[in-house]
Amino acid sequence: MKIIIIDDEARARKSIADIIKFSQHNLKVVAEADGVKTGIEAIRKHKPDLILLDIDMPDGTGFDLLKAMDYIYFKIIFITAYEEFAVRAFDFSAIDYILKPADPKKLLEAINKAQQIVEQENINLKLNALFANLDNINPDSKKLVLKTAEKIYLINTRDIIRCESDMGYTKFFMVDGKNVLVSKNLKDYDVMLDGLGFFRIHQSHLINLKYIDYYDKTEGGSVKMKDKSILPLSRRKKDSFLKLINMM
Questions:
Q1: Whole-structure pTM over 0.70, yes or no?
Q2: Where would I find the beta strands (DSSP E) of 125-236?
Q3: For residues 208 and 201, is the Cβ–Cβ distance under 8 A?
Q4: I need a surface site. Which of 109, 110, 149, 159 has the fewest CB within 10 A?
Q5: Are residues 22 and 129 in the same domain?
Q6: What's the angle, vertex CA 210, arms to CA 208 and CA 211, rounded to 5?
Q7: Domain match, 121 and 166 both
Q8: Does residue 138 sit within a domain?
């Protein structure tokens, strides 16, 4: 795997290059670059399989570099200082990233994951989702990339009625009647969708509050959704849930 490291910090580039050099994997750093312009030149010259891309650089951002490319055929792992908003955007868009300073184990895990992808997934779809999420501060317009065994879906969070745990997987129920099953557990999406109008009413159920039909107080309490599903409300979540719906 041919790798290019694009980062304006020489120390960071050396640290990453050393991790790769001593990893005993079939990896080779074919070039380094310190900015957008030099990064584009290195990509065109060396045609890498993977780029490790910093976000903030003196002559622009890693996003500017990608937007300047005619065609993206290589895999990408972003390198970023911790910013909660940006990190959540990566998670929503299913794009790999590592935080600075680069942890050797996490870096090699991300590279190994990239190596195991036999065919290049639809990176342009993912990047479009990422750019939309970074540009749009409206929580009701976030775009979420969902990967199944056969397809990659790009959905708006406002179109999710509910999510249901299914043996370590998560099933999404959409307003158009579509169901999407992905190989991530419900806890991951509970964290990801926090603050976007979702609430986990039960260990197995995460709901979009705007699609509640009614709350039934009888027999311990249950929640009927607009898709006609009737879901249990756990005792532990009851008080928090009632406070939320009373504020709506």
A1: yes
A2: 143-147, 152-156, 160-166, 169-174, 179-182, 198-202, 205-208, 212-216, 222-225, 230-232
A3: no
A4: 149
A5: yes
A6: 75
A7: no
A8: no
Distance CA 84, CA 206 (A): 22
Q: Which two structure tokens, joined as six digits, stand for 63?
A: 């996003």
Q: CB 92: neighbour CB atoms within 10 A?
A: 22
pLDDT tens per residue, range 82-125:
676 677 788 888 888 898 888 999 999 999 888 877 556 678 78
HSE-CB of 18 using CA atoms within 13 angstroms: 9
**Structural domain span for residue 105:** 2-133
d(CA 163, CA 24): 41
Q: Is 141 domain-assigned?
A: no
Q: Which residue has 């342009």 as its token pair? A: 124
pLDDT tens by residue, the chain, 248 residues: 999 999 999 999 999 999 999 887 789 999 999 999 999 999 999 999 999 999 989 999 999 999 999 888 899 999 888 676 677 788 888 888 898 888 999 999 999 888 877 556 678 788 888 888 887 666 667 899 998 878 889 999 999 999 999 888 999 999 999 999 999 999 999 999 988 899 999 999 999 999 999 999 887 789 999 999 999 999 899 989 988 887 76
Q: Which of 202, 219, 205, 212 is nearest to 246 (CA)?
A: 212
Beta-carbon contacts of 131 under 8 Å, excluding residues fewer than 6 positions away, are 63, 67
